[in-house]
């Protein structure tokens, strides 16, 4: 009968609530643990149980055939995560059918697209069958030696495919097929604040609102950034800061922006322009392909295990086949430290070699190309005219040793060319480049060069890192873009009797830093020194900073000295910071103290910070501040996060002054099916939609709960990465149940991804029932509603647990292909859903009597 159901009527979604999954799991355990005579065929996981071994009468009550096939589950639709060889590759809704007594997961084209099969393993003619909705084949039909089953205790589809059939992928690489461009939406982000202060007899009032408006349509993202400011003296003023549209180009791992933007500053100094920018987006690369790490090459003589360590810490381990191997997906580890590669052959032999690893910002991985192209007009240069500008930059990882890079920056009156290279070796990482610049003004032409060197080395023996960077300008004729635009602007507007524009362009800049970690929890020491000189100005500006930090148990402290020496004098500042947790509960309360001393005297501040609420939705801070003029003020601040907005407030009181402020922060998303507000705003967000699940907490976000619509805006998602969205159902009313509490999404940068959580609404009901003659129902029999949806199972003691809506419900009890009986249940709509389970005791009657 079950098979007939799936061939003649539509397949309904099965209730995969936590309770129903738990019941399935219990039945599976019980079925596997029943002491029966069993005849097993291990090749296909089939076993035959002899019901005659059961106590007298129980053989007729339990349908033992449901335990015959391994991984047997009720048919229906399942929302599951996908695990490929124990690696999470996505989330999908899949159909399970009962075919010849076996549970078959119907393979779809989207599922096959998630599996990175080698090109030669794809039979395009055979795969055409994937588009036939009437067909249902298991994964093994498409991929030889593959297997798959659904683990109902974790809601995962567990797939096993021989590694030889798969394309090699970088660590934690997420298929672009999973990247979600989100829904069409208008998103309004806001951050406003009203401030008022009083000192003596004067009162100052001001208001500020920063707005962040986004319109997402089919992956196109229109952006507006602006601010409104007001005070009693100047009145109101609105500033439009930036307007642009952007789009992610997945095949190129690139992004295009049309409108107002800033260049990256990777090679030339960053500047603002209005125009078009196309650049490679490193965010689209997996973490194991970003930054710099060397490529590991070697040769294995057998099926070998390769491990890579740095400072005796295991970074990477994999197995390789006999022959040459290549590992290019190590995670970057800061400034580096030589890598020790060990090849463990299957016959017990061990080969070991070292790979140098030192990094500077200019180094990128072998085979990676980073580029950018920008063209438009300059913005925010504080000049009378907007010059046209174009810039092209390219970086290419040539091999483990060398990265080459260069660029061109040009306007009608200014041209700059850069060429350089970076090298990584056993003695450290070094980058060298030269920039040639020409500036043309109505009264003069300036030409000069800039030479730059950057060096970094980590010494493993002493656990120290040295970074040295030097930039020297060989002639006074070298100008960067900003200084060049100011000189051109002045000389263009200068009258004949006016002097030429005086400017002080950088002549040389030298900086060095040392970081030293001490063993046995003796803390961390750092030292930074900077020396800068200018053309046309004598002397130099020097800065020296030294600091030490450590902790004892849960108490941490830091001490730093900062000395600045310029032409107009020298200043030294000493700073001490201390953080002490008060109590060991959660959330913790911290006492933070800071002391600062310089030539003007001593200042100090102490603050007590904590949070309140079941989900830490209320933050507060109280403190005292004593400044260098011997003035003492008391202050307090608080933030409240509601499902719709966040509210902030501050107050400060001194002897002769006091001030206070209040403000709102959050965002509003407008979709075709409604409006949702939230207390946070970020570039990339998710819209959770779980009908009736008001009050469920979104884990990982303080105070973020689903609103009266069952919706919430979840901020701070990582683009192009797997993001877990988890709901805590503890505060749900008893008449609402989440069918799953976790989903994974992979958003495009800037997208608003809608995440739908299925819920069932109905009151929990326990029914004790028997057949009219008092006989027990078959243990494990299925309980269906009138539409054929599986609601639950018959448990021990003739107990049925189901969720039912108010009013009349008819339940069918089936065992195997046989329909046993029906139940009619009536629930009053007046019962409070929080009162707990409702209990009924009534017989299960033959179908013909109802």
UniProtKB/TrEMBL annotation:
The keyword Hydrolase appears for this protein: no
Keywords, sorted A to Z: Cell outer membrane, Fimbrium biogenesis, Membrane, Signal, Transmembrane, Transmembrane beta strand, Transport
Compartments, record wording: Cell outer membrane
InterPro entries: Fimb_usher, Fimbrial_membr_usher_CS, FimD_plug_dom, PapC-like_C, PapC-like_C_sf, PapC_N, PapC_N_sf
Keyword Transmembrane helix: no
Recorded superkingdom: Bacteria
Molecular-function GO terms, alphabetical: fimbrial usher porin activity
Cellular component annotations (GO), alphabetically ordered: cell outer membrane
Residue ranges of domain PapC-like C-terminal in the record: 766-828
Residue stretches making up the PapC N-terminal domain: 48-193
Membrane topology: Multi-pass membrane protein
Primary site of residence: membrane
GO BP, sorted A to Z: pilus assembly
Family: Belongs to the fimbrial export usher family.
Name of the featured protein: Fimbria/pilus outer membrane usher protein
């Amino acid at each position: 009968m079950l098979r007939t159901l799936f061939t003649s009527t539509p397949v309904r979604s099965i209730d995969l609530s936590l309770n129903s999954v738990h019941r399935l799991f219990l039945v599976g355990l019980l079925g596997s643990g029943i002491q029966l005579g069993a005849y097993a065929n291990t090749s296909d996981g089939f076993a035959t149980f002899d019901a005659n071994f059961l106590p007298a009468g129980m053989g007729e009550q339990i349908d033992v055939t449901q335990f015959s096939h391994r991984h047997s589950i009720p048919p229906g639709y399942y929302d599951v995560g996908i695990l490929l060889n124990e690696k999470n590759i996505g989330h999908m809704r899949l159909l399970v059918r009962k075919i010849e007594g076996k549970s078959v997961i119907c393979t779809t084209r989207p599922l096959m697209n998630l599996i990175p099969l080698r090109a030669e393993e794809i039979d395009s003619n055979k795969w055409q069958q994937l588009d036939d909705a009437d067909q249902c084949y298991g994964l093994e039909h498409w991929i030889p030696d593959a297997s798959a089953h659904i683990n109902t205790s974790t809601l995962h589809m567990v797939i096993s495919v021989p590694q030889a059939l798969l394309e090699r992928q970088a660590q934690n690489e997420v298929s672009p097929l999973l990247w979600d461009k989100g829904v069409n939406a208008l998103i309004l982000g806001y951050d406003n604040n009203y401030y008022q202060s009083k000192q003596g007899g004067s009162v100052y009032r001001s208001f500020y609102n920063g707005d962040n408006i986004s319109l997402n349509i089919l992956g196109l993202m229109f952006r507006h950034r602006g601010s409104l400011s007001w005070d009693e003296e100047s009145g109101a003023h609105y500033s439009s800061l930036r307007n642009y549209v952007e789009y992610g180009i997945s095949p190129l791992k690139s992004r295009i922006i049309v409108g107002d933007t800033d260049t990256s500053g990777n090679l030339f100094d960053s500047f603002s322009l209005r125009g078009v920018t196309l650049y490679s987006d490193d965010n689209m690369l997996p973490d194991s392909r970003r930054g710099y790490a060397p490529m590991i090459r070697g040769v294995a003589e057998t099926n070998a295990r390769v491990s890579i360590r740095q400072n005796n810490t295991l970074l990477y381990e994999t197995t390789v086949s006999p022959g040459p191997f290549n590992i290019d997906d190590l995670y970057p580890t800061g400034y580096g430290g030589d890598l020790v590669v060990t090849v463990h052959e299957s016959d017990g032999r061990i080969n070991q070699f070292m790979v140098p690893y030192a990094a500077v910002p200019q180094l990128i991985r072998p085979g990676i190309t980073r580029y950018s192209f920008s063209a438009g007009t300059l913005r925010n240069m504080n000049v009378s005219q907007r010059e046209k500008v174009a810039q092209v930059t390219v970086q290419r990882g040539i091999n483990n040793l060398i990265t080459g890079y260069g660029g061109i920056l040009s306007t009608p009156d200014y041209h700059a060319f850069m060429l350089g290279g970076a090298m990584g070796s056993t003695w450290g990482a070094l980058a060298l480049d030269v920039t040639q610049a020409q500036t043309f003004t109505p009264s003069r032409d300036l030409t000069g060069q800039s030479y730059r060197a950057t060096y970094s080395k980590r010494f493993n023996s002493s656990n120290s890192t040295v970074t040295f960077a030097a930039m020297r300008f060989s002639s006074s004729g070298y100008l960067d873009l900003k200084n060049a635009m100011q000189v051109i602007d002045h000389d263009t507007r200068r009258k004949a009797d006016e002097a030429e524009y005086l400017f002080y362009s950088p002549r040389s800049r030298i900086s060095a830093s040392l970081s030293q970690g001490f063993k046995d929890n003796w803390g961390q020491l750092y030292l930074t020194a900077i020396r800068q000189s200018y053309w046309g100005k004598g002397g130099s500006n020097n800065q020296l900073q030294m600091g030490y930090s450590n902790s004892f148990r849960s108490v941490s402290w830091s001490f730093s000295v900062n000395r600045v020496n310029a032409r107009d004098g020298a200043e030294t500042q000493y700073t001490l910071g201390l953080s002490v947790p008060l109590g060991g509960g959660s959330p913790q309360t911290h006492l933070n103290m800071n002391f600062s001393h310089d030539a003007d005297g001593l200042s100090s501040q102490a603050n007590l910070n904590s949070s309140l609420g079941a989900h830490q939705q209320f933050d507060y801070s109280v403190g005292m501040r004593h400044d260098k003029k011997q003035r003492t003020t008391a202050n307090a601040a608080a933030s409240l996060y509601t499902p719709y907005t966040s509210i902030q407030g501050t107050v400060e009181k001194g002897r002769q002054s006091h001030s206070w402020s209040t403000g709102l922060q959050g965002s509003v998303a407008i979709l075709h099916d409604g409006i949702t507000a939230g207390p946070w705003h970020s570039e990339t967000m998710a819209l959770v939609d779980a009908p009736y699940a008001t009050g469920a907490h979104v884990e990982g976000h303080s105070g973020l709960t689903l609103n009266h619509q069952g919706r919430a805006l979840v901020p701070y998602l990582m683009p192009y990465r797997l993001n877990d969205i988890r709901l805590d159902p503890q505060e749900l009313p008893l008449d609402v149940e989440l069918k799953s509490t976790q989903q994974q999404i992979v958003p495009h940068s800037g997208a608003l991804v809608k995440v739908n959580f299925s819920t069932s609404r109905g009151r929990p009901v326990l029914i004790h029932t028997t057949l009219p003659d008092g006989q027990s129902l078959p243990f494990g029999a299925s309980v269906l509603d009138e539409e054929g949806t599986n609601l639950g199972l018959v448990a021990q003691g003739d107990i049925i647990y189901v969720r039912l809506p108010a009013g009349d419900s008819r339940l069918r009890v089936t065992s195997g292909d046989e329909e046993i009986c029906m139940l009619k249940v009536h629930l009053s709509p007046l019962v409070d859903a929080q009162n707990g389970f409702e209990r009924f005791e009534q017989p299960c009657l033959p179908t013909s009597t109802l």
